[in-house]
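A.,

Following up on our hallway conversation. Structure tokens first:
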């Protein structure tokens, strides 16, 4: 009983004496009153280091003693003030992990909190729970759409949730001009923050400024909010931070805090120095045994020179003056060579029509990467191409695979991506996968890819057209979250402008019909490919599957037939079993049909797609959208007989063309009978002069214009004569050009060529 009384008295003394608590740390060399949690630590020179080079971790630092925040008389929260200096250091230019939060919490450790986008504050369950009683000021460097972040460089006021009550891009008000000057949170430079709460006016002010600059008169953020219902009587004050997939260190150089008054000013000159970027510690062995090491170095340098001369050609790179601007984004070929073990077959992750992808571990940083080797075509200037690659490297979204940089050598371009441990999505869908994704996982992947594509189309500073959306280009991270990758074909243009015509590239089954006709990739053509992706993920089938030698199943046709019968759920992947939500599966299948409409104007935007998937807006009734066989891209055109063509067995093979003949071939779609037709609006009334037609119906028995294995033409009608004649004339005109590039014209077809 005596011991209990002593403990109660001790707690009362601690709490009472903390009503006017104030403290200041100009360094953290003597910081016994700080409680550390997670990977947080003190450095030898007095820095508080909240995170290190460990991925997916969190770090906390709290003042050890609890602090009374409420007035004993009226129960309102007292005024408080704090200032601190922080810095964020990343391994990569323009890439960073997650941010840092100044936090008031009922507990010191924030138990059950998650790293990454949750910043070590909350988890999926308690985020937004009013029982958290947590107040924070987040300094965030990652755009998390799920929390409504405004950009990837902002400051926000958080109350019980990571969805900020108010936020603004990082910066400060210039006292001379009165305008906001921007601050880069990931520049590596020290930045000072002031957080103040007026208990009388119930106002929260947040101010930022570069170090050595006096506090701006006008705060960056002001929010009128009574914290009395939010905070408990006794709270803990401190910091929280977390890491994601990019190695980042978060430092606090100094900290001052006070209840019922203004916090003491930090002595900037006494703050500890930040480590140099990329600095290496000198080994004690070198310092002690310098003479011996010097002799050894001479021998090593001699051997290294001999080795360098022998391997100079092997690792030679092409570096032009204009590439100096992209230095931080360029990798050395030698580093990539060793990272991938000489691009060995054991490191090969996959290959396709546009290159081979290898897994690698960077020699120094030990960062796991995926390296894609592609041969750059000369039809576009290398300088413009590299500029686009570097721009794409600045994309930052949780559902995009980060493009870390590039390397070019001897006409070959190497793209370096963040490595995704679970590989591509298609291996979980096709060829009898060993691991089958359930519906919840698939739906989360679909929404994630939609969010990433919406960011590319509308939320970034430029419009990014991906041009190759498919399951094999969606990679899964350690949490099986979908990330859209492979930006090797992506094109950029400014908002409000029209995209330029380019060569037609992409994968059969995902190409929008207008893209093959005009050569112009647009946001709408990306939506079309996304529609094919929706059906592929939900049905577990490729957009075009060959079932027999001369017969292919067109997925969108099949789903459309199920929809017409009123049994669209029959199209779902049978591997899903019964563990799925009926309304979600129907939503995705119907949305896939809507995105596959042959008219670009009839397809939804990615903003609408995200709203449909999140149930913010109801999907329109498809029966009102003329979603008939004329509306679908592979539908059958009435009043026109078919020109059936069979497709290759592998329908996941990308292709590119720049020929008027091939454009006319690709301007059509596939009929419900699984045959390709030529889509034309008007036919010539009679054949052109000089063209004779056989009396028997022509038969295509061999390879035809590089596309088909076997096909035949039947049921020729008078309306088709003019079409065939025009087509033959075009073949005759282009025959020499086509044969020069190895295309067999008219083989097996009894036509006068």
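Then the amino acids I'd put at each of the 753 positions:
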């Amino acid at each position: 009983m005596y011991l209990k009384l002593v403990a109660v008295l001790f707690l009362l003394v601690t709490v009472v004496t903390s009503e006017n608590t104030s403290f200041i740390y100009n360094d953290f060399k003597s910081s016994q009153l700080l409680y550390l949690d997670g990977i947080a630590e003190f450095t030898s020179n007095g820095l508080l280091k909240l995170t290190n080079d460990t991925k997916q971790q969190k770090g906390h630092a709290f003042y050890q003693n609890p602090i009374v925040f409420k007035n004993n008389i009226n129960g309102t929260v007292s005024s408080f003030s704090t200032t601190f200096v922080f810095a964020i250091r990343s391994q990569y230019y323009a890439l960073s992990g997650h941010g840092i939060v100044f936090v008031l919490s009922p507990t010191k450790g924030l138990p059950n909190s998650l790293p990454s986008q949750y910043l070590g504050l909350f988890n999926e369950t308690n985020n937004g729970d009013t029982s958290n009683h947590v107040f924070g000021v987040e300094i965030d460097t990652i755009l998390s759409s799920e929390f409504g972040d405004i950009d990837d460089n902002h400051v926000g006021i958080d109350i019980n949730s990571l969805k900020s009550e108010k936020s603004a891009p990082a910066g400060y008000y210039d006292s001379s001009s009165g305008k906001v000057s921007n601050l880069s949170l990931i520049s590596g430079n020290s930045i000072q923050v002031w957080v103040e709460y007026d208990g009388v006016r119930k106002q929260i002010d947040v101010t930022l400024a570069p170090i050595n600059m006096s506090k701006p008169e006008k705060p960056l953020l002001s929010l009128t909010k009574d914290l009395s219902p939010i905070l408990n009587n006794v709270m803990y004050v401190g910091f929280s931070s977390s890491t994601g997939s990019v190695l980042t260190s978060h430092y606090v150089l100094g900290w001052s805090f006070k209840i019922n008054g203004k916090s003491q000013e930090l002595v900037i000159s006494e703050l500890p120095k930040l480590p140099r970027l990329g600095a290496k510690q000198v080994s004690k062995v070198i310092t002690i045994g310098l003479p011996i090491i010097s002799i050894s170095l001479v021998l090593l340098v001699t051997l290294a020179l001999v080795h360098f001369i022998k391997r100079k050609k092997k690792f030679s790179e092409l570096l032009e003056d204009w590439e100096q601007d992209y230095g931080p984004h360029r990798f050395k070929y030698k580093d990539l060579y060793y990272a991938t073990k000489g691009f060995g077959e054991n490191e090969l992750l996959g290959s396709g029509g546009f290159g081979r992808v290898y897994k690698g571990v960077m020699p120094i940083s030990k960062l796991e990467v995926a390296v894609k080797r592609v041969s750059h075509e000369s039809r576009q200037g290398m300088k413009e191409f590299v500029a686009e690659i570097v721009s794409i490297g600045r994309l930052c979204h949780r559902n995009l695979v980060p493009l870390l940089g590039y390397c070019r050598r001897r006409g070959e371009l190497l793209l370096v991506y963040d490595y995704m441990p679970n590989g591509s999505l298609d291996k979980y869908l096709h060829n009898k996968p060993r691991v089958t994704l359930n519906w919840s996982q698939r739906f989360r992947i679909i929404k994630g890819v939609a969010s990433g594509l919406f960011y590319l189309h509308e939320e970034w500073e430029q419009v990014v057209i991906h041009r190759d959306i498919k399951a094999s280009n969606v990679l899964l991270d350690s949490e099986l979250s979908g990330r859209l990758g492979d930006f090797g074909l992506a094109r950029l243009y400014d908002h409000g402008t029209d995209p330029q015509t380019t060569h037609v590239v992409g994968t059969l089954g995902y190409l929008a019909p207008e893209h093959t006709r005009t050569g112009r990739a647009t946001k709408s053509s990306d939506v079309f490919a996304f529609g094919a992706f929706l059906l592929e993920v939900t049905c577990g089938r490729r957009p075009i599957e060959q079932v027999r030698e001369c017969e292919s199943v067109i997925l969108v046709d099949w789903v459309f037939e199920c929809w017409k019968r009123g049994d669209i759920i029959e199209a779902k992947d049978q591997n899903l079993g019964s563990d799925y939500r009926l309304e979600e599966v129907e939503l995705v299948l119907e949305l896939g049909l809507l995105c596959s409409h042959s008219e670009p104007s009839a397809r939804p935007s990615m903003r609408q797609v995200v709203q449909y998937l999140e149930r913010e807006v109801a999907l329109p009734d498809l029966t009102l959208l003329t979603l008939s066989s004329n509306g679908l891209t592979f539908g059958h055109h009435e009043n026109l007989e078919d020109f059936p063509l069979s497709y290759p067995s592998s329908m996941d093979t990308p292709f590119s063309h720049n020929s008027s003949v091939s454009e006319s071939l690709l301007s059509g779609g596939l009929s419900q009978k699984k045959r390709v037709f030529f889509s034309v609006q008007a036919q010539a009334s009679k054949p052109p002069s000089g063209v004779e037609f056989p009396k028997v119906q022509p038969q295509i028995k061999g390879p035809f214009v590089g596309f088909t294995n076997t096909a035949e033409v039947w049921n020729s009608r008078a309306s088709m004569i003019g079409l065939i004649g025009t087509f033959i004339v075009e073949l005759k005109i282009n025959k020499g050009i086509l044969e020069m590039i190895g295309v067999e014209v008219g083989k097996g077809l009894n036509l006068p060529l």
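The first helix runs from residue 2 to 17. Curious whether your intuition agrees with the design.

B.
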